[in-house]
Each structure stands twice: as C-alpha cells, then as structure tokens.
Design brief:
Radius of gyration: 19 Å
CATH class of one domain: Alpha Beta
Structural class: alpha/beta
Largest sheet: 7 strands, parallel
Helix content: 40-55%
Shape: globular
CATH superfamily of one domain: NAD(P)-binding Rossmann-like Domain
Length: 306
C-alpha cells in the first residue's frame, strides 16, 4: 500500500504543522493548497470536486486541515465537506479531520467525546453538521474516518487564532497582551505541533476510525497564568489585560471581527477544559510540549516575523 499522506490546507497553521510531523516520521507527503509550492506541494482547490479528487488520488491517508473563512462556516462548510468526502470515497483513502469543540455548545465540567452536539449558534451548528456528515459516511461504509478535536491553539504560524494577535503578536511588540474572556477561569489551550502529533497518530492507527477523539493536552491554565508564562518567556514583566464581555459588546458595535466572538462567548466565561482520557487509553501517553517551551517557541516565531 502507498505511504502517501495528503494534507489539505497545508499552508495553514494546522496543516503545515501536520505536514512537518509527517515528514519527521518519514512519510511521503503531498502538501495541498490553492497555490502549491515546495517539492511536495500540489496546487488544488479542494472546495471543488475536481480539486478535491486531484488532492486525494492515490493517498493512503487524507488530513482535512482546510476550512472556509471563519465568518462563512455556516454557508460553506457542509458543501466543502461533501466535496472532500466524495473524493475520499473515490480514492479509497482514510480521512482524518482536524476538528474543534464548537459543536458542544455551553458545557459544565470537563468535556468528553460523549457530549451531545448542543450548540445552537450558526458556527456551532455548522461544525456539528460537518462532524455528523463524516461519521455518517463512515457508518455507511463510504469512507474510513476519524476526527481529532483541539481547543484554542497557539504556536509558530498560528496567526488566525484567538491567541495569536491578542497575546503573542502583542507581547512580541512589547504591547499589552490581552486575554479574551474571563482570565480567572481554566481554559485548555493546544500547541500546534502537539495537535499535529495527535492527528498523525490517528492517521497511522486504523483502529482510530469511526469516532471523534479529543487530542491530548496539558493541564488547563487560567488566562492569568497563561499571560504570566508569556511574559516570563519574554524576559520580564509586561502589560496584561482582559477583554471581558462588556468590552466585547462595545467594540463589536464597530469591529465585525470582535462582534463574531459574542456567538461563542460561553467558551470564555466559564471553565473550558478538555478531557483527553480516551486518546491516552487507546494510544498511550502522548509526547506533549511543556507550556513554557511551547510559549517560548511561539513568542520567538512572532518576534522573528515582526
């Protein structure tokens, strides 16, 4: 069987980390993006049937790390997923979906994979629909698929994330690092290379198929603890602040990006903690990057970019 692993969205934060992890493990990689590039790059628009078919052809495993623009999830994600599923079905590949936690809606206590898809907001319902489509295709025997779910992520190349501009880019520039939400509640954060390690593990283990997995993480810090670690890595005290609900509502009147945050504010006003017990029981204790090391590497990347 071929050892070709295709990464859809290979120039994005998660996709590029997955491609790096695959190369480090010695797999052949097809790095798929709209513009291609690199020795293992392929230019393809995977939102179209033709582009998705070209991306998936001949691959043993497909890592779906691409997604529509954040504001367009409700309108575009289901159709996008249908194109990818059809291509995976034709190619006979296995599918690993890079997923998140939006479908659960407001929660109490640590989040396990058995939670219902209770989100009522448009983005949460879009993510629930996508997960349901993939798992239904698996049950029907059309594809073999697994989903790997992560919380808010950070890391090198992590630009389009709640932690990138407000925390790391700000700290790298010596400006105020802002935690979005209540800084005194626990909030699981995922480091991009650790997400990639988890997703590639799912790709290498066929017994993972047929369900969603919470990718392994370290103990959740509070926002205040996380910001303190950022400033420790930066080499000294800096300015920290929180963007709380009242400020979000006020800024959202004039800033559409900030306004979008209100839809899922329940992820920011209470403990938001991932339970990764199932993954650890199935695949063993993971190799995770300590928070301090991960934060230092992320800050160095943002400083280099500046």
């Amino acid at each position: 069987m071929t050892d070709l692993h295709a990464v859809l969205g290979a120039t994005g934060a998660i996709g590029s980390a997955v491609a790096d992890e695959l190369r480090a493990r010695g797999h052949r990689v097809r790095a798929v993006s709209r513009h291609g590039g690199g020795t293992d790059g392929l230019a393809a628009d995977v939102t179209t049937p033709e582009g998705a078919a070209a991306a998936c052809e001949g691959a043993a495993v497909i890592y779906q790390c691409a997604q529509p623009p954040y504001a367009k999830w409700p309108e575009e994600f289901p159709g996008f997923t249908d194109a990818v599923l059809s291509a995976v079905e034709r190619s006979g590949s296995r599918l690993v979906m890079a997923d998140n936690l939006y479908m659960y809606g407001p929660v109490k206590g640590p989040m396990g994979e058995d939670l219902p898809y209770a989100a009522t907001n448009p983005k949460g319902r879009a993510r629930a629909k996508v997960a349901e489509m993939i798992l239904a295709a698996h049950r029907e025997g059309r594809v073999r698929a697994a989903l790997g779910r992560a919380s808010d992520y950070f890391g090198p190349r992590g630009l389009n994330t709640i932690l990138g501009p407000t925390v790391f880019a700000a700290a790298a520039a010596g400006k105020t690092a802002r935690w979005v939400g209540d800084p005194d509640v626990l909030h699981t954060v995922s480091y991009l290379p650790d997400i990639a390690t988890g997703l590639v593990t799912l790709g290498e283990r066929p017994e993972a198929d047929g369900r969603a997995w919470h990718l392994p993480v370290l103990t959740a810090p509070t926002g205040t603890e996380f910001l303190d670690m950022v400033w420790d890595a930066a080499g000294g005290p800096g300015r920290s602040a929180a963007l709380r609900r009242g400020m979000q509502l006020a800024l959202g009147l004039v800033n559409p990006v900030v306004r979008e945050l209100g839809e899922t504010w329940y992820q920011r006003d209470r403990d938001w903690v991932v339970d990764d017990t199932a993954f650890r029981a199935a695949f063993g204790e993971p190799r995770l990057t300590p928070h301090e090391e991960a934060i230092a590497a992320t800050l160095a990347w943002f400083r280099g970019r500046a």
